[in-house]
Design goal:
The chain contains 1 helix and no strands. By secondary structure, it is mainly α. The longest helix has 101 residues. It is rod-shaped.
Length: 103
């Protein structure tokens, strides 16, 4: 009878260990699924971050390109005005010299 009790206890312990093993396998499988999901989410977040950074960079470049073009146009306009002023000054000087000679 004592041997029978030991055998039943050992058998019970084996079933318990098998159940624990199944639970552990299920927990491990669930952890693997969670790891895969977390990895996918991290990759998606990384891709989203890279896309946002690229978009921000493009927008900044566009803004600066617009400002650069505006500054270039402004400088070109000033250069045209300067040339016109130089031409006006040269004409005025020529007219003044002509008046001096005529006087």
């Amino acid at each position: 009878e004592g041997l029978r009790a030991e055998l039943e206890a050992a058998s019970s312990k084996m079933r318990e260990m098998e159940e624990d093993g199944k639970d552990t396998k299920e927990e491990l499988a669930e952890l693997k699924v969670q790891l895969v999901r977390a990895t996918e989410e991290a990759e998606n977040a990384k891709n989203d971050g890279e896309a946002l950074a690229s978009q921000a960079r493009e927008e900044a470049e566009s803004v600066w390109r617009g400002k650069l073009e505006a500054a270039q146009t402004y400088c070109e306009d000033l250069f045209v005005k300067l040339e016109s002023a130089e031409e006006d000054a040269a004409r005025a000087s020529d007219e003044a010299n002509s008046e001096k000679v005529a006087a």
